[in-house]
Write a structure and sequence with these properties.
alpha/beta; Aspartate Aminotransferase, domain 1; Aspartate Aminotransferase, domain 2; 7-stranded mixed β-sheet; 3-stranded antiparallel β-sheet; binds pyridoxal-5'-phosphate
């Protein structure tokens, strides 16, 4: 048999999905696993959004959408949302593509920008899929490792150190999975300065935008002066609206880039699902209090978990600004994060993601998802108190 794709053979499978699958399979075998490895809200999709999709199906909205890049009502809902929430003013006819999930929007963004060998900078800790997505698009991933001692703060020196004549773009994710950091206006200004000076595109992943705690504020890069022409924004309904399984996201940016993204989209997946786009318009145009209520609930869980974890001898956990993850560090063990995650599953039946999956800054951490019921988090803390000395 002839050789299969070298590119894909060298792409690792997603570590987060792998840990989650292992936990689910133990649960199916009757084991009492507390699953803290996933990134899927425990809430159900708000009923008015479900109802909009059911009605759309009943009304026969089950055919290919026209245009393929998105139903006009969904494109308009995204453009209105960008103006309302982000201060970014776009033309729904030329500047938006509706995608099956924001992960596909990230891929479209890279596909529209990258030529073979172009370097794309990303910030560590990083969501596991960025380096593989860059490689699949033909680019070379370049990590900027943000140290934990500075609370993963972005600085001009760290960014500039990694810029070369081949650098094409910077990928940014705020609120960040896994660190829970929300970039400050100063850090946003730093990224803007470097992007403009070095003539770089920016891909900004804002999928956790609705999950911001305390008095932190989400700043959109496309809204900063002179940035709209070089910024592609990706976002979606998965996290904020508890709609992971619906697969609904979008990419927004300047028309020449979005045109290429739309070309790739139509020649691959064709479109997002028609009735899902009707539901997306209902989600974005409808009441937002449900989204705020879910965010409050994540904040309560964060408050509980950060305090409880820091009270356990041998665990240190930074506070977070947003998203629904914590990155505790286990201070009394020589184990690396992969060994630690295995030991935790074995000793305490707690599934967590090894920090190494997110890059060099979190090699001795685990990632816990708090998109899990409070009762489960309480049980996790009890188990951790019992086993931490044995890890
Ligand atoms: C940082 C980040 N970006 C993008 C995604 C993709 O989300 P979706 O494709 O469900 O919109 C995820 C999912 O975990 C994520 O954590």
């Amino acid at each position: 048999m002839k050789e299969l794709s070298q590119l894909l053979a060298n792409i690792p499978p997603s570590v987060t999905l792998a840990v989650n699958d292992k936990a689910k399979s133990l649960q199916r075998d009757g084991k009492d696993v507390i699953a803290l490895a996933g990134g899927d809200p425990d809430f159900d999709t708000p009923p008015h959004i479900v109802e909009a999709a059911v009605q759309a199906i009943k009304n026969g909205r089950t055919h290919y959408p026209a245009p393929a890049k998105g139903l006009p009502e969904a494109l308009e809902a995204v453009a209105d949302k960008m103006a309302r929430d982000n201060g970014v003013y776009v033309d729904p006819r030329t500047d938006v593509v509706i995608t099956p999930g924001s992960k596909w929007a990230l891929y479209l963004a890279l596909a529209a920008i990258v030529n073979p060998g172009d370097e794309v900078i990303y910030l560590e800790p990083v969501w596991v899929s960025y380096p593989p997505l860059i490689r699949i698009a033909g680019g070379a991933p370049v990590a900027v490792t943000l140290p934990e001692e500075t609370n993963f703060t972005v600085t001009e020196a760290l960014l500039r150190e990694k810029v070369t004549p081949r650098t094409k773009a910077i990928m940014v994710n705020s609120p960040c999975n896994p660190s829970g950091r929300v970039l400050s206006q100063d850090e946003i200004n730093t990224i803007v300065r470097v992007a403009i000076d070095e003539d770089l595109y920016v891909i900004t992943d804002e999928v956790y935008e609705k999950l911001v705690f305390d008095d932190h504020k989400h700043y959109s890069l496309a809204a900063q002066p002179e940035m709209a022409e070089r910024t592609l924004t990706t976002n979606g309904l998965s996290k904020g609206y508890a709609m992971t399984g619906w697969r609904l996201g979008w990419i927004v940016g300047p028309p020449d880039l979005v045109k290429l993204a739309a070309r790739m989209h139509s020649q691959t997946v064709t479109s997002a699902a028609t009735f899902t786009m009707v539901a997306a318009a209902a989600a974005l145009n409808g009441p937002q209090d449900v989204v705020e209520a879910m965010c409050c609930s994540y904040q309560e869980r964060r408050d509980f978990m950060v305090k409880a974890l820091n009270e356990i001898e041998g665990i240190e956990c930074r506070n977070t600004d947003g998203a629904f993850y914590l990155m505790p560090r286990f201070t009394n063990t020589e184990k690396n994060s992969v060994e630690l995650a295995d030991a935790l599953l074995e000793e305490a039946m707690i599934a967590a993601t090894p920090g190494a999956a997110f890059g060099a800054s979190t090699e001795r951490h685990l990632r816990f998802s708090i998109a899990t019921a409070m009762s489960e988090l309480e049980r996790a803390v009890e188990r951790l108190e019992r086993v931490v000395g044995r890890l």
